[in-house]
Specification:
With about 280 residues, the chain is an alpha+beta fold. It has a domain of about 200 residues: Aminoglycoside 3'-phosphotransferase, Chain: A, domain 2 (Alpha-Beta Complex). It is about 45% helix and about 15% strand. The chain is built from ten helices and eleven strands. The protein has a five-stranded antiparallel sheet, sandwiched between helices. A two-stranded antiparallel sheet has the order 6-7. A two-stranded antiparallel ribbon has the order 8-11. A hairpin with a 4-residue loop joins β1 and β2. α3 crosses α8, α4 packs antiparallel against α5 and α9 packs antiparallel against α10. The longest helix is centred in the middle third of the chain and has 20 residues.
Length: about 280
């Protein structure tokens, strides 16, 4: 990790730092009154260019607010600081409608990176490949999202051979489990509750994206994985703005397979058990 200095911020933004505010990650006040936060991605090479491209791509009219990008290089990202507030039902309803608008903005293909974003991206502290796929969503999701992490988890011993085979059988059936065909959606890609900040102005802001073209149900399933305040309100507003296909609730475990296996790779076996339970549920469908 490198220590970010005011000179770094001025170099990346072209603005003058008028105050060093401290904190972790560090915050600075720029001329004109903007407060920015600096993220150090030197431990995950390539993650900062991917995140900067993702934030810019997610800033669509009518979509959820994201911090503006003030500047970046390979290791440091300077973005707008979010002043914390608290979740409210009104903010959750607004978030649901705005997520529908974000997803409707679309992507060139399943697996497509944001414009200017690298093929080798990141989710958390592990790699994620963004390669456009011209086939159906399920085939891409199995090949580029589920199976690479499954193999890593199996080879490290986090999943038994039998449990890995169960996941593979779900992948073999993914065409029938995936539901109706949908066009590629513009995804945040790592939309767990910790990446939804409830700001002081009453609006939710999305941070730390792993943005790519995918299925809109994947973002919604991620919101449910670790619990989000007023989640039912978010989902109801989303469904009203952009009705979800019949059976979408039964497909939540399918869409959660990717983040569960990512967490297995990052943190170990407890998440492996949750992935196996999801596949046991899917095997009964």
């Amino acid at each position: 990790m490198t220590r970010c200095t005011p000179a770094d911020v001025e170099r990346l933004t072209g603005r003058t730092v008028v105050a060093e505010l401290g904190g972790h990650p560090p915050c600075f006040e720029l001329d004109g009154g903007a407060t920015v936060v600096v993220k150090d991605g030197s431990g995950d090479p390539g993650s900062i260019p991917a995140e900067a491209a993702g934030l810019r791509w997610l800033a669509v009219p009518g979509g959820p607010a994201v911090p503006p990008v003030f500047g970046h290089d390979h290791d440091l990202l300077v973005s707008g600081h979010v002043t914390s507030g608290g979740p409210t039902a009104a903010a959750a309803e607004d978030l649901g409608r705005r997520l529908a608008a974000l997803h409707a903005a679309g992507a060139d293909a399943f697996g497509a990176a944001p414009p200017g974003g690298p093929e080798q991206a990141w989710i958390g502290h592990t790699g994620m490949r963004n390669t456009p796929h011209d086939g159906p969503w399920g085939a891409w999701f199995a090949a580029d999202r589920v199976l690479p992490y499954l193999r890593t988890a199996r080879d490290r011993g986090d999943l038994s051979t039998g449990d890995a085979a169960l996941v593979e059988r779900v992948c073999d059936r993914i065409g029938e489990l995936a539901g109706p065909d949908e066009p590629p959606a513009r995804l945040h890609g790592d939309l767990w509750s910790g990446n939804v900040l409830w700001a002081a102005d009453g609006a939710a802001r999305l941070i730390d994206p792993a943005a790519h073209g995918g299925h809109r149900e994947s973002d919604l399933a991620m919101l449910a994985l670790f619990g989000l305040p007023h989640l039912d309100t978010v989902l109801a507003a989303y469904d009203e703005a952009a009705p979800l296909a019949d059976g979408w609730t039964e497909r939540v475990p399918l869409h959660q397979l990717f983040p569960l296996l990512v967490h297995t790779v990052l943190f170990g076996g407890g998440y492996a058990r949750r992935a196996v339970l999801a596949c046991e549920w899917l095997s009964r469908l």
